[in-house]
């Protein structure tokens, strides 16, 4: 009888599914030892909850038996293993031959999904409390993950005598010994690195019926291994993401295997009148006999066919070119464009190889036709051109879930948010997501810049400031294999526009040559960039990017000065740091005591900010908040002021880069906001929080990136119009009105006949005067853009001061520039409360609810309602419907003005009787029914 130790002790989770808002944070954890019936019941309940939770994370499961994948031969032969049973080697003392054999009992093991880190599975099983709440993650013992863990799964075949069987996988973190039916087929020395891909021929070991695959996964240390890690985004997971985070696919084929099918496209630029397709596929004869195989299929509208004779064991790449297949020269191709520039059509590549009329193997993939260039301009900056047209990269840094759990619905919601924000690009610094992510990017038209991580093993040879160890000969091999596998995986995705082979540091000559060799072998035809930090490499040369920060608070005017992080060139990661979530999110993620510390103790380390000592407190941010807006009176006042501060700073960052994109000297060519999201419950570096709620940072970015936009320049006080649409706009009227905080107008001017070209910028003759009688201290500026009929096209409201923020550039460092004197915005505190008239109606169709909210300023006071926030909430007014998409929000209204806002959300995410909650800077809080 197999000898096993008992399972680890279990703790009741506060929130086993972090995609679902946590409940009462005061719930007690119950520590239970052994295996009483209550634990089995808990596991069952967690499993059922996962199964019934919309969009629940894959990779999460409770106790049970992993289902066996059924793998047929021939057409569509690949099957991903359905899931794993996992257990620590500290609790399994049996020999590997027994553990990896069919029928081995896994009582007391944990069920994991097909892609799961160890800790993700334990969280799903309820072993630990919600790690995203408070400091719960500290309770997870890291010692549990210093030994290997077993991953077991079964698959079945009907007849092992027919065809050949292969294991095809990547995503092992950090390395693994691999076994099939009790026999070792590969070692951890051979299967190492998250991004390496492996295909193991296990035909001789497979038998009819049930077969077992077992991985003995080694612990991960990103300082020592070319895997994944976290630097300063979040508190790193105690298991360091050890596990298997991509599908393990069992493939069965006939004598000839079909691999590496892809299309190389060559679009005629700038005409876009034609495109040449070159189709490539590798055939491998795994039989002992010489065979004649027929490779046939379609690439878009072109039919393909060719006979190939292969000797035993021979592998050959078959190439179809326009020279021998004229239909591969497409007239008027359907060109793929980024969102906002055109459509996102995709073509299919379907191939099959047959021997003696019997299908041996098949392949299906999609591809897009587009051209990407990114030369370095005269100022030394990367200037991307898509299909011959220059494009300002407006992006943000994407983070996966901290435990690398993949949730397709959750990812799609974030992708929709990216489009809603008016962004066109996502940067992935390592943590390269599964194929579905890039499929989403293709569909949504969101460009992606992939690359390796900074500061750990990936830069161990070249970054003395990082923590990574020096490379061995084996590391060089893993790096080349990783590059080859990721290039082959990403090359057909039109959304992918380049690869950063370095982050904070560029590779040396040996590493760079290895990467470039792998990229050439994969037919990579996209820009290769040596680093994100402005550091050149021996072959690829200048990076054309810079990483000058900031990463912590700076005032909005900072972004307009063309030095440090100001709006010039291509800034690969930058933002004003902290992003305080909404009160709804804060109460989910922090205890009452932690909420008090948030606003009362600026020098206190914040667990949910960063493990980095540089970013551990909110000292700079809180000092600016108090210095500009006045000291917070309580938590609500602190959060209210934070939303204004984040809105104005994030808006200014994007506005500065979009305005300066058309400058004749040192233009802005790209900016990556650091970050889109942080992967857990965070207090900084995010436009979108963990629960998909939207705060001032979100709506500041959304306002700045609206397609036709009127804006104010903090540097020259001028009003500009930015047109990001594909058509020109003419005959526009731009108006600016300056008000005291009580609503008294002190200045009003309009310019007419404003024209702005497609994807252009026009700075008008309208500039705010340096001094206006009656304005002292804090004042408001309302900018309106209308067409010739007076229809409002864009509205933008600023809160300004007659006293400027003063920056000390002489003392600037890599993460911020000190502010020696703050603008005076304290006058906002005296603005009268405004009781808005609010009406709301809700309709539901096909699982989507639409709530239309009308806000009207009744004119009971002359003061405007500033930055009014609207939420659709549950009947008790406490829980917002999330995710949600608003046509507009955080709006400002003057007496007599009204605004209609429309929210759309999944009906399942809302109460049957939703209500609308209105708050904001000085709007009197009210919650009304939606009828």
Automatic annotation (TrEMBL):
The chain crosses the membrane at residues 37-57. Residues 108-218 form the Beta-mannosidase-like galactose-binding domain. Coiled coil: none annotated. SUPFAM superfamilies: (Trans)glycosidases, beta-Galactosidase/glucuronidase domain, Galactose-binding domain-like. Pfam families: Glyco_hydro_2, Glyco_hydro_2_N2, Ig_GlcNase. Keywords: Glycosidase, Hydrolase, Membrane, Transmembrane, Transmembrane helix. Residues 257-370 form the Glycoside hydrolase family 2 immunoglobulin-like beta-sandwich domain. InterPro entries: Beta-gal/glucu_dom_sf, Beta-mannosidase-like_N2, EBDG/EBM, Galactose-bd-like_sf, GH, Ig-like_fold, Ig-like_GH2, Ig_GlcNase. Residues 1-29 are annotated as: Disordered. It comes from the Bacteria. Residues 814-922 form the Exo-beta-D-glucosaminidase Ig-fold domain. PANTHER family: MANNOSYLGLYCOPROTEIN ENDO-BETA-MANNOSIDASE. Belongs to the glycosyl hydrolase 2 family. This is Sugar-binding domain-containing protein. It comes from Streptomyces cinereospinus. The lineage of its organism: Bacteria, Bacillati, Actinomycetota, Actinomycetes, Kitasatosporales.
